[in-house]
């Protein structure tokens, strides 16, 4: 049985309280670094592969290992933040991230690079778990949406700057430079964070090691199966075994959390409709978002044969819209609440996806850019108010776990969206995915099949966005008080 109410205040602030704006500025650095590294590494993979004398398939694990590790550790890191203090978690995350970056830059073999990326991901998980939680503890509810909007701006900026910055660094200094740049930023940010962020006293609870292992194993098995489904086949013994393992570990985790004295996740959190519906809507929204991110480079570069520079500029339309609109959405959610904004954002997202489903080989570039901007606008209008609603529904003493769940929803949605979209497009194209003409582009008939598969994937994403909108509108009942008092 649980020995403490989830609403029990876990931390006692000590010393002079820092300016909320100073806290927000420090948090933006880590919130920028983690997505920057996730996006910047993709452009370096074609250079890393020949340098380390490995195949592109093998080197893809440089990106995959980072995503899987951070996803598997997020909940554990959120719990550690609630126990040890969010400042300790955040500063530790920056230092581990910087150490992992240095190890990546010095790697001369793929196994060493993969191990270094895992270390980086540990730090990234700590940063993602601490960020929104620190905002929730620093800003009052009436200002929290605006602050989270600024944090969302930092995430979008990292995703936007990554490819362009990576291209310049790799072309000028070589691929290790994309990791070297993280080192001074991490060290300086850690020093400033230690002096700026409010100190918190540790609570007298033990860490739920078995719960952490079960939760991490369940997520790792699920996301590993999703990631490798196309490689092994959805009906293969490897994928079925991983899915069965995920279910068994997940059920065991739920059983153990109900019995643990100090559970890693207090399951009473899910009694709150804003918490549960907000996370479910986030998973669906990120599934639709990454269906776009996954398919559009193939469409622009392989089907429409656009120059890489022009395609890169067009793909910036989505994160640019998010960067511009997220702060405004956050401030507006402080005034009118999250329900209307989250729902409207998802409906705008559905419109953008519907427009993308109409693309063909002759679609003008301005129309494509406008469509991508609409998608980003819808995501921005949804994301910040939804995050604010989830954090509002999370008791203060469990802010780290709530923050981790938000990041977990993004990771799960991203991987499920890519896997679902890849399955739809591949089934539509059949075995002709590699049919290239003499210029390295898809042959006209194959390009038409690619566009048809992408159109079908966008229509499926429209349906997912509408389901998410229904969750946001109909399941926003405020039952936070029940969670906080443990009833």
Describe what this molecule looks like in 3D.
By secondary structure, the chain is mainly alpha-helical. The protein has three domains: about 180 residues, MFS general substrate transporter like domains (Growth Hormone, Chain: A, Up-down Bundle); about 55 residues; about 220 residues, MFS general substrate transporter like domains (Growth Hormone, Chain: A, Up-down Bundle). The chain is about 75% helix and about 0% strand. It is built from 19 helices and no strands. Helix 4 packs antiparallel against helix 17. The chain is globular. The N terminus and C terminus are likely disordered.
In terms of DSSP E residues, the strand content is under 5%
Mean pLDDT: 82
Q: What's the domain count?
A: 3
What is the number of helices? 19
Count of strand segments: 0
Give the biggest sheet: none
What is the CATH superfamily of the largest domain?
Answer: MFS general substrate transporter like domains
What is the correct CATH architecture of the largest domain? Up-down Bundle
CATH class of the largest domain: Mainly Alpha
* Through-space gap between termini: 14 Å
In CATH, the topology of the largest domain is named Growth Hormone, Chain: A
List unreliable stretches of 5+ residues: 1-15, 478-487
Q: Nearest-angstrom radius of gyration? A: 22 Å
Query: What class do helices, strands and sheet pairing give?
Result: mainly alpha
State the helicity in percent bands: over 70%
H-E order: HHHHHHHHHHHHHHHHHHH
From the spread of the alpha carbons, the general shape counts as: globular
């Amino acid at each position: 049985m649980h020995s403490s109410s989830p609403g029990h205040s876990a931390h006692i602030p000590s010393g002079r309280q820092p300016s909320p704006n100073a806290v927000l500025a420090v948090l933006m650095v880590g919130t920028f670094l983690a997505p920057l590294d996730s996006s910047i590494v993709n452009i370096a993979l074609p250079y890393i592969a020949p340098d380390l004398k490995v195949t592109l398939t093998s080197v893809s694990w440089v990106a995959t290992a980072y995503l899987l590790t951070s996803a598997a550790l997020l909940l554990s890191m959120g719990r550690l933040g609630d126990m040890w203090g969010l400042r300790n978690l955040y500063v530790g995350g920056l230092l581990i991230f910087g150490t992992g970056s240095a190890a990546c830059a010095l790697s001369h073999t793929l196994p060493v690079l993969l191990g270094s990326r895992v270390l980086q991901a540990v730090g990234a998980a700590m940063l993602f778990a601490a960020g929104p939680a620190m905002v929730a503890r620093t800003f009052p509810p009436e200002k929290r949406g605006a602050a989270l909007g600024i944090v969302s701006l930092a995430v979008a900026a990292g995703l936007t700057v990554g490819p362009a910055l990576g291209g310049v660094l790799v072309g000028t200094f070589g691929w290790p430079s994309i990791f070297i740049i993280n080192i001074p930023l991490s060290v300086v940010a850690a020093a400033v964070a230690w002096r700026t962020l409010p100190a918190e006293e540790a609570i007298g609870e033990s860490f739920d090691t078995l719960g952490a292992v079960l939760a991490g194993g369940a997520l790792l098995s699920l996301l590993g199966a999703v990631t490798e489904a196309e490689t092994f086949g959805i009906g293969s013994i490897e994928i079925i075994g991983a899915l069965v393992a995920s279910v068994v570990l997940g059920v065991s985790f739920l059983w153990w959390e109900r019995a643990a004295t100090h559970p890693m996740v207090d399951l009473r959190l899910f009694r709150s409709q804003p918490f549960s519906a907000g996370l479910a809507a986030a998973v669906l929204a990120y599934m639709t978002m990454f269906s776009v991110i996954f398919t559009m480079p193939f469409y622009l570069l392989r089907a429409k044969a656009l120059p890489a520079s022009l395609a890169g500029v067009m793909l910036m339309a989505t994160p640019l819209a998010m960067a511009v609109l997220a702060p405004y959405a956050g401030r507006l959610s402080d005034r009118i609440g999250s329900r209307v904004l989250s729902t409207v954002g998802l409906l705008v997202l559905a419109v953008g996806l519907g427009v993308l489903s109409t693309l063909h080989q002759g679609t003008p570039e301005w129309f494509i850019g406008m469509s991508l901007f609409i998608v980003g606008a819808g995501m921005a209008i949804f994301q910040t108010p939804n995050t604010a609603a989830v954090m509002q529904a999370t008791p203060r003493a469990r802010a780290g776990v709530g923050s981790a769940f938000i990041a977990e929803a993004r990771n799960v949605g991203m991987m499920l969206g890519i896997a679902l979209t890849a399955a739809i497009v591949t089934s539509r194209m059949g075995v002709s995915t590699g049919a290239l003409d003499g210029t390295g582009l898809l042959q006209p008939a194959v390009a038409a099949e690619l566009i048809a598969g992408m159109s079908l994937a966008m229509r499926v994403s429209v349906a997912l966005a509408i389901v998410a909108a229904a969750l946001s509108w109909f399941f926003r009942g405020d039952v936070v008080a029940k969670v906080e008092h443990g009833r």
